[in-house]
Structure prediction request, 238 residues.
Amino acid sequence: MLTAEGRLGENGATAYLLRDASMPLDSLSSTLTTFLGANVACAQCHDHPFAEWTQRDFYEMASFFGSTAFERVDTRKPAITLRDKNFSKANLVSLLQPNMERVIFDSTRSTVFPEDYAYNDGNPGDKVSHRFISWDGKKGAPLTDIRPQQLRSHFADWMTSAENPRFAAAIANRLWKKLFGVAVKEPVTDLDDLEDATNPELLRLIAQLMIDVDFDIRKFQRIILNTRPIRAGQRDTR
Prediction:
């Protein structure tokens, strides 16, 4: 979904990026929240007041999608030609328009700091460097040797890597909630502080299990549902 290109009618995976085509920052925020449990929405406009997220962090992540563009075709004229007693122009436009949109690469596009950027680590309008966030508070060097065409692929590889602890934890936490009605860490959209989970050790355990089964959802659920729970202080007498 993150690397898909082409028309929606030919590649259904493009729907993910096309959904928020006019709101790229919101799209990134949703991506980080959904797949990593990273609560970053506030950082779109300013440093996060309650988490270790800065506005610069957010824009550096957004820059991986900076060369992604969206092409639309006006379907009103074809709709007029095709309309009949069964399908009005409005009906046809609503049917045709989504399938004529495309996700494309545009080498002339890049991410820049917004006009109201107010921090001393960058200036409004400056091009933003590519840099991944980290979970240990340490910032790595900006990535300068990536071809623009490969930015989204590089981002997707980083996000879904077994070495990215938040990806496995986010999936495991969501599945735990699906199975038992409550997640180990609530809400599932905010894993910024894993130690704030009801059982941090359990969350780490199921995240590692997700990695061990190579993100196989069926295997993960089979193991969880065939595991006998033992209360604290209870002896397993099997």
Summary: The radius of gyration is 22 Å. Strands lie at 6-7, 68-71, 102-105. Residues 165-180 form the longest helix (16 residues). Residues 165-225 form one domain.
